[in-house]
Amino acid sequence: MLEIITGKKNTGRYKEIQDSNLVGHVWELWREGRASEIVDPFFNESVVDEALRCLQIGLLSVQEHATDRPTMSTVVLMLGNDSALPSPKQPAFIVTNYHSGTKESSFSEGVHSINVVTCTMLEAR
């Protein structure tokens, strides 16, 4: 849903937010109250509120704990009505370059869980 609303791929990098992936970029803009900046410019201005609702549902769907994520039937209900939605929590996985260790030039790249339980290193085939 985030890819559809933004017109961007999740596999890309967004230097605006410390080399973040799409989920991380949308999350940062959402937290800052600037989520409308990421909405695909091909959307008509009259549907921006609906697009922001879809971004919120997308962020709710990538939360850390599965019990916090809506089921597909709940997502369908959320999309079909205008009821208030809960605020999303920080997504579980955000691709970033992050500082590790004490040297400023020491960076590791990969996928990191916010609870530091999972670490997957990205490698080319």
Chain-wise SSE layout:
Blueprint: H1 2-6, H2 22-31, H3 48-60, H4 72-80, E1 93-99, E2 107-113, E3 119-120
Antiparallel strand pairs: 1-2, 2-3
Question: How would you characterize this protein structure?
Answer:
The protein has helices at residues 2-6, 22-31, 48-60, 72-80, and strands spanning 93-99, 107-113, 119-120. A three-stranded antiparallel β-sheet has the order 1-2-3. It has 125 residues and is of the alpha+beta class. A hairpin with a 5-residue loop joins β2 (107-113) and β3 (119-120). The chain has a single domain (2-92), classed as Transferase(Phosphotransferase) domain 1 (Transferase(Phosphotransferase), domain 1). The chain is built from four helices and three strands. It is globular. Mean pLDDT is 78; it is low at 98-109. The relative contact order is 0.15. This is S-locus receptor kinase C-terminal domain-containing protein. It comes from Ficus carica (Common fig). GO terms for molecular function: protein serine/threonine kinase activity. Residues 81-125 form the S-locus receptor kinase C-terminal domain. InterPro entries: S-locus_recpt_kinase_C.
Q: Summed up, what is this model?
A:
With 125 residues, this protein is α+β, with helices and mostly antiparallel strands. It has helices at residues 2-6, 22-31, 48-60, 72-80; strands spanning 93-99, 107-113, 119-120. The chain has a single domain (2-92), classed as Transferase(Phosphotransferase) domain 1 (Transferase(Phosphotransferase), domain 1, Orthogonal Bundle), CATH 1.10.510.10.
Key features?
125 residues; alpha+beta; Transferase(Phosphotransferase), domain 1; globular
